[in-house]
Amino acid sequence: MQQIKLSGVQGTVFGLALLWAVPVLVGCGGSTAKVTGVVTYKGSPLPSGKITFVGKEGFGTADIQEDGTYTVDAAPIGECTVTIVTEVETPAGAKGALPMDSPNKQMKDAPKDSSIRPDAKDEKEKQREKLKDKGADPMKKKRVVPAPPQYRSTESSHLRYTVKTSKNEFNIELKD
Predict the structure, then answer these.
(1) pLDDT, tens digit, for every residue of 29-62?
(2) Three-state secondary structure of the chain
(3) What is the pLDDT of residues 62-113, one digit of tens each?
(4) Residue 10 lies in a domain
(5) What is the CATH number of the domain that holds 144?
(6) How many domains does the chain have?
(7) 110 part of a folded domain
């Protein structure tokens, strides 16, 4: 076997490259993992919301799908507290809702002539088509089932799971 001798500069460059390559090849930066599962409440899938795995080194979050499933692509490895936040339906007339007590006035103030902005209808139609292409129905209202409030924060949630570098599947049943 022939021995190769490196000059000072070549040796330094090779050493630095080796120092950089070893942690990358060993996988030193893999401090997150994928987590999947289903969230249920009162025996039925939770149809919407956000789930978050909070660990010492950060957090990973995902949307809860209509069938209750979730996929967190980058949950921190180790002991995590899980929080679940669902949207709250806004009752009519609540702050933030559009006032609809005088729709006639709103219609009276609206421009009557579409020539002011003739492309507005086309733009709206294009946006609807784009959403349909992605599988979302823009006219369909998202079903909201409020989750119990104790799951909203890490201080009150009792959900604790250990995320590992291997497969992680946690089916979560929420209780009142």
Answers:
(1) 469 999 999 999 999 999 999 999 999 999 999 9
(2) CCCCCCCHHHHHHHHHHHHHHHHHHHCCCCCEEEEEEEEEECCEECCCCEEEEEECCEEEEEECCCCCEEEEEEEECEEEEEEEECCCCCCCCCCCCCCCCCHHHHHHHCCCCHHHCCCHHHHHHHHHHHHHHCCCCCCCCCCCCCCCHHHCCCCCCCCEEEECCCCEECCEEECC
(3) 999 999 999 999 999 999 999 999 986 545 444 444 444 444 443 444 444 4
(4) no
(5) 2.60.40.10
(6) 1
(7) no
